[in-house]
Amino acid sequence: MSDIVLIAAHPQLGQSRVNGALLQRAAGIGRVAVRDLYALYPDYFIDVAAEQAALADARLVVWLHPVHWYSMPPLMKLWLDDVFAFGWAYGPGGHALQGKDLWAVLSTGGPESSYRPDSYNRYFFDAFLPPYDQTAALTGMRMLPPLLQHGAHRVDDESIAAHVEVFAQRLARYPDWPEIAELDAAPACEVPLDARPVD
Amino acid sequence: MEHGTPWLSSSLIYLAAAVLAVPLARLLGLGSIIGYLGAGIAIGPWGLSLVTDPRAMLQFAEFGVVLMLFLVGLELEPKRLWSLRRPIFGWGSAQLLGSTTLLAAVGMAFGLDWRLALVGGFALAMSSTAIGLGVLNERNLMPTTAGRSVLSVSLFQDISAIPLLALLPLLALAPAAADGGGGWLGAAKAVGVIAAIIFGGRLLLRPALRWIARSDTPEIFTAASLLLVVATAALMESVGLSMALGAFLAGVLLAESEYRRELETDLEPFKGLLLGLFFIAVGMSIDFAVVLASPGLVAAIVLGFLIVKALVLVLMARLMPVPLGERPVFVILLAQGGEFGFVVLQAALGAGAVAAQPASLLVACIALSMLLTPLLLVLADRWAAARLKSGAAGPKLDEINEPQHAPVLIAGFGRYGQIVGRLLAANGLQATVLDHSVDAVETVRRFGWKAFYGDATRLDLLRVAGAERARLFVLAIDDVDQSVECARLVREHFPQLTVIARARNVSHYYALRKLGITLIERETLDSALLSARSALEVMGWQPHAARVQALRFRRHSIELMEQMAPHFEDERKLIAIAKQGRQQLEEMWASEREQNAERAARAGWHAPLQRTVDEPRAD
Prior knowledge:
The complex is a heterodimer.
Chain A (H helix, E strand, L loop, with lengths): L3 E5 L9 H10 L4 E5 H4 L7 H9 L3 E7 L7 H10 L17 E7 L22 H9 L3 E2 L3 E3 L7 H17 L4 H5 L17
Parallel strand pairs in A: 1-2, 1-3, 3-4, 4-5, 4-6
Helix pairs in contact in A: 1-6
Chain B lengths: L4 H23 L4 H12 L10 H21 L3 H6 L1 H25 L4 H12 L3 H10 L6 H23 L12 H35 L3 H21 L4 H12 L5 H26 L2 H6 L1 H25 L7 H9 L3 H13 L4 H35 L17 E4 L3 H12 L4 E5 L2 H9 L3 E4 L5 H6 L7 E4 L4 H14 L4 E6 L2 H9 L4 E4 L2 H14 L4 H22 L6 H36 L13
Parallel strand pairs in B: 1-2, 1-4, 2-3, 4-5, 5-6
Helix pairs in contact in B: 1-2, 2-12, 3-11, 3-12, 5-6, 5-8, 5-14, 6-16, 6-17, 7-8, 8-15, 8-16, 9-10, 9-11, 10-11, 14-15, 14-17, 15-17, 16-17, 23-24, 24-25
């Protein structure tokens, strides 16, 4: 019985060092149901009912993807647009995700040192996370501290192995993480009825 | 005899003979024509002697040949016929004149009278249109080069029979008095009738058919189709022309009409049965008395003229050129004597150009050669297969002996298989290709494919092609029965192979599904959906909205197919599920349209927000 659902999105999984290893490891953990979006929906046509059903019983939702242009890969964004529907994930009657945890496991091509005001990415990486944080908040999910791997192209094999190990430990131990005890509950975000003039 | 019985009992005999003999012959791998001929021999005067007058039946059944040529004509628009004028007149005359001259020369070398040699040469040079085109149809070879060449030569023979029959009296031993004037008059009449058929066909037939079709009585349309052919044949017959040629002309004139398909489906069964009857009649009319009286002579004549004609045909095949793999069929289908030979000999006999004894000897030889044709074809097939297996199939096909190791096997390399194969090759994947068309194999080999000629429904061949070591088997054969047979073999003997299959239609899909194959594509689904997308776009849908609708339809259709799969033998249940599924989809989409319209109306009222059908999602 799986209480963790892992949504993975990598357009070139075959060339991936970090995401590929993470995905492979996660697939071997019994409580994790893996949904590899680029394998499931190569034609960018998402089965919304199936995706919503997969999320229904999960306590933890994991998003596993490389960061592209400071955001998620396009199919992951489409998944979000289609699956997190008004009246299901948010808005009146939209409580399907309420009380779940959301954990982003992200990788970047640039090294950590590039995410600084004096380097080419100009911002600390945290500056790119508010959309994730607010997505979790609006849908009533608690955002867990993201797991990051920077410099995915250059990092050595031992580091990747260590990263994968941390990832696997977390999945296996969830919700028994030291960080979780310190987290606040998700902030409540009610969307007022008149916020959507069209519907 | 009691009234009514002769009709009933002869129907009983013919139908029973055909129904018994044809499936038996097919079971033995001999083809239906041999079955009919065998049935004819069995019930004829020299078999069980159930029928005593084969001549009458032969005349009646010749109408099957007429119908066949009408149907051949239907497949051939005037433009294409025009493009065939060179093969018809060039190669047709080469065959007829070449064979006649050679045969007559051989005859005279054996000391025959020149008149007999010439008439005999003509009679034997004619080929059997019925057998030639019948085999082409049975094996689906009409569109090949060999098929078109056989048709061209047959057509020329039909055309040339006209002047030939007119000239026969001139060869008479005792010239008949004054018929020169009649000849000219006859020619004028003939030209007149052909002109009438062409102009009548162009101007009158279509309106007439439209008028009949509008009566909405299917059997009357069938009757009209038959009447059309009978009338044309009668018209031609009345001026001494070939009935078959007239029917062919009428067919060509209707090839572009909207009634072509309907005419085809209406006449097809009549043609099939009458042609079968014709072959039965040929079988019955083999005079075994003549054969038994001088078996050596008959054998020598049959073999001799087959060889002489084959020589001419081989030379032609090389010059035309007919593709190497199709040459055996081309040669065999035109080498035998034909029904026109009977007519020529009868006419010559009537005109006194030959005596009765040699005429009946030649008739027996022609009939025997017709019997030999399908047998020779079977032998040629076996030989080609054996050659393929032993790896001695000439320089281009000699690698089959070496076991193949490519990870992908593609069976059927026509339009479908080629697309699959090219995409794989472009991605650096090696594939071994099997196709039953030598032509296709030779072509793709030139592009560097490891293509082999062969029947993918043969286990030994699949083994040599590497089915035991490959990972993937792409089943792209276009013939449904062969595809299913091949799938069955692969599933049974090479379970490690993943099969990706092309389905021609729904029942094909289920047949494959039943064998446990899951990666099946219905061959027209996706291209039809792309057209439907274009249609929605033209009608004002946003291109992306059209795409989404097409993809939703596709998913629905595939789910429905899967739901129906367990019941595919229960037609009623299938129809019920299909209906229900379609209804669900239509209702769902109708209510979506309603919601969207409401939403658009409200948006128009509150704020001029741009909304499209494909964005049911929020924000």
